[in-house]
Amino acid sequence: MFFSLILILKILLIIVPLLLSVAYFTLAERKIMASIQRRRGPNVIGYLGLLQPLADGLKLFIKETILPTSANIFIFLLAPLLTFFLSLMGWVVIPFGENLVVANVNIGLLYLFAISGLSVYGIILSGWSSNSKYAFLGSLRSASQMVSYEVSIGFIVISVVLCCGSFNLSELIFSQSRVWYCLPLFPMFLIFFVSALAETNRHPFDLPEAEAELVSGYNVEYSAMGFALFFLGEYANMLLMSSLTSILFFGGWLPILNIAPFTFIPGSVWFGAKICIFVVLFCWIRAALPRYRYDQLMSLGWKTFLPISIGWLFFSSSTLICFNFLPF
Amino acid sequence: MILFLFLIFCSFGVISSRNPIHSILFLVCVFLLSSTILFCLEVEFLGLSFVLIYVGAIAILFLFVVMMLDLKINDKLFNRFRYDLVTYFLIYFFFLELALPFSSLNIYSQNLYCSNFDWINWSSQIETFSNIQAIGQVLYSYYFIFFFIGGFYSICFYNRFFNVDFNFK
Fold it and tell me: How far is A36 from chain B (nearest CA, A)?
């Protein structure tokens, strides 16, 4: 009884701040894009527009839920739930600080990978079940994009794991206490971040929701809460990918230098700051870059990133073997 | 036990549902349930790789193909018992395989399936191993030849596969 109560409390302690941060991620995105385009952005509701995400949520909540008559209702309703739950499930293994983790699994990275592989299903099911051409095309595009960029992400993750010797995320961070992996593995960091953009269907790879061609991609037919769940899931995924980038390459909760003024700041604050940097980068890229063409996107994934990441895997493993640096 | 019942129900769903996409979704359920069973047996690594490979890659490929082909199934042509004989043979062999370990005719003895070197990792007797380490220790030493043959076979298969499909422009 007591144990399960504590477990529920732990889960709530992750989910509630996560949803809050997703809400304020949307506000931050709008504000940052506005300031890049020299506008004000949302500034009416609340002080400096700080209550805007709550108002948006309320609007989505009180809208009418429309179920298309030709849709496959069960799958149509299942898909947004699946996307949302999967985007929350990944956060179980993320360490927010030293020993600040719900489940310290020793194959945490594989778990994250499996979750991101499953999240393709939400998209593909939503596109198929809503029985509309635009939604279907959008879902096929986005699913194939996610699958193809997952491959190169996998190779990059393997080369990081080789340097660290463990799939456990906490151990991955501990192994970076001398030097963050973004220095020795800098090209891999770049490729990982770009692949993360493609994996979360963000600009400049947001072809699934190319407004001019496909209206809005796989979620055209969804209104009200269904759309809200997709939206939340997408942004939670983005946060997850940016936290994964900071864990893999920027040392998670570790301070910049292990010297007195930096070590006073708690680790979770460092982790949050690193996530924020990537969130800002996500928004900045959305405002600054034009969209890719679809064949360019695919050739970038399969013909450029995949060979480079495989080559880097060979290079790093042979370097590690040559200098006897292998950690196990 | 409940898991097994669900699994059997889902696998019946795979072969009995009319809509091919529903049957693939049932197949995904089967994979997920079997990986859950692996999790319950504390073989986390294999369970996760089940999810990764079968659910994350293969089932999605199936789903893509079925969606793209847009199969219209005609009920009269759809003869479910066309493959009767083959099915019974397969079932027979499957049960034979299941029965073999319990029978006296034990073809899975150590001598046939292991290469002949006697090497005991003494540190493994003291330390506790994680799943991946245990699999790696066995796979790359005792069963190396089988691993090698499997890898070689799959490489040949993919070569063939790609030779057919590539059109160099």
Answer: 38
